[in-house]
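Below is how a single chain appears once it has passed through the pipeline. First comes the sequence as given, then the structure the pipeline wrote out for it. We keep one example in the README because the format questions we get most often are answered faster by looking than by reading.
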Amino acid sequence: MANVDNPPELNGRKAHSIEAVIDRIVIREGIDDRLAESLQLGITHGEGTLLVSYFVRESEESSEGVWRDLVYSTIYACPNCKISYEELEPRTFSFNSPYGACPTCEGLGTRIEFDPELVLPDTSIALSQRAIAPWKNDTDAAERQHKKELAGFLAGHSSAWTTPLDQWKPATMQQFLRGDEKEFLGLLILLEKEYATAIRPATRERLESFRGEVVCPACGGARLRPEARTVRFGGLAIHEITGLSVERAAEFFAAAEVHPDNAPIYGPIAGEIRNRLAFLSKVGLNYLTLNRPADTLSGGELQRVRLTTGIGSGLVGVCYVLDEPSIGLHPRDNQQLIEAIRELQGQGNSVLVVEHDQAMMCQADQLIDIGPGAGLHGGRVVAQGAPRDVADDPNSLTGKYLSGELRIPLPESRRRVAKTRSITIEEVTTNNLKHASAMFPLGVFICVTGVSGSGKSSLLNETLARAITRRLTGAGPKPGPHGSLRGVNQIDKLVEIDQSPIGRTPRSNPATYTGVFDEIRRVFVETREAKQRGYRSGRFSFNTKGGRCEQCQGQGVQKLEMNFLPDLYIACPECGGKRFNRQTLEIHYRERSIADVLEMRIEEASGFFENFPVIHRLLKSLTEVGLGYLQLGQPSTTLSGGEAQRIKLATELGRVDTGKTLYLLDEPTTGLHFDDIKQLLQVLQRLVDRGNTVIVIEHNLDVIKTADWIIDLGPEGGDGGGQIVATGTPEQIAAIAENHTGRHLRPLLNGAAMSPESAGDLV
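Resulting structure:
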């Protein structure tokens, strides 16, 4: 302290550490306010740093001792370690903010680059055996050039050229792929350079097939910068907490302990978190992980997530409108959803649900039945009242199914299945699947069932379909991790039919997607007046210049951009929404212009073109799947997911198949009425009767009961699922007492002639 009381002379030629005394304090009771004020003043004058000197006695009796210094800092920097951090803020933990996002992947968690698994697909061979797939078909000259590029690596690993890749050390493989931070850049960087400098489109396309979404090597998929990943609560970083399922996250926050000093801050926040997690569980989403990307959620899952927001908001006097919230929901979880909706209604709100689920309809206070048909055949209120009143109304088609007067019948017999004619995939570990192995018999109607989140899409869409596509075509997205795949040689084509839109703009419509519009344009080209004017097929296309209206460029509408509001579309003032110019519209076939044909309903157009076999076949297939009410030129942006899926199915039905096609459909009954489902099942059964195989992911019990073979996943969703819990015919599944699907299937099969022991045994 002597230096403080009697400061030395300062030498202007030397650097000095100058410290100002802010306060001298004797530690005792009642000095908290003074201590806080002094610390604040010291931090202010010290520009974020503070030095505390305290006296330590040698013993309690002695007055002798030593002075010790402690440095405190708010700058988040260490001069010794040369490390500095920015101040932690809420945005630090958000991958949507540049302050929190991983700088390498910009918060995406993945990068589009060359995938090591695609570049080196067979690790049992050596580089000398052309193990590098993008260079496999190189000429000798190209091989010498590539070997020259690898010279920097091969110089330090003399045996690497002839040693199988699976015998390399992990560190050596990492250097080979990513570079050795010296002269060798790494194989992946060399391929990126080759891709970036490729001039020929064919070369770029070939190299593109070896690229894919790869987990960011910097953040490991966490999407956050290092500072955010190192902060922990309850032993977990924020990305590890969001990686938990709703169920496990609820358990984590229920068991979390905090210091008593932090309890006033943590308590209200934790209470809000627990409430929101409880709401998600109430609507049957306890299997979802908190970091699940929104674009991977089904329509029903997305609606249920929004529903939890409404339940938790506590609003009163609000009218909520839900469109098919039961999409993707197993019958076991239906009651949970209904109770959540009832809770929302019990808070003083009104809930209007557009729904086809029978359980939802039967528990509603009021039913409004619209019909009697679809499109121009509907649009009227057929019946309204309590579910019993609608069921007793003879004019209501829905009521007839609710009362049991009409029903979807069981098949007269199940097709026999054989192990010798099947596709088998083994040891699948995609997402939550736990080394699942499944046999898919061919030539039958297969239904993959299971509670929501049990792994159905992971098994079929992300693994089986992709693996089969790669086996048949040699290209396509990388399938999920699995062991072996057998039996693919017994089919010649895989057709995936999902609910993604058939187009993103009004230019796309059922006529263009199915290809029937090309045939219709040929009909107009063959008319006498078109021949006299020299019109070709392109003249009748609204996508090319010549015949289309140039003011709206063939869209039929013009877009008005509205500030702060959705864009507004109005009919084109030049063509009146017809899409074509005056000269094109002067050409008629049977007194109809090309624009008149596009405005026809599909069922009407089917009869109009009955003398043209190709057109009639395609339009008939659209009518068979229940889409006769759509207009040929109806913009794809106005179609529902179920309508888009049925258009894709009808397109495949209109083609000539070989009888060895595998069709894969994901929830084809979405948005369908009982009668539509009955019609759809007839179409699917005809596909199977022609020798094809149909696999559907489905929760609808009427579809499940008509299948020849069921593969049931579970027993629960998320971490509690991922296993194949049962396989067999519907009767065999229904006979399993503890099976969730079988329990709900059992009442539908009561009284059926077939028994679990005799129906469709495996041969």
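Residues 751-763 have pLDDT under 50 and may be disordered.

See the next section for the split statistics.
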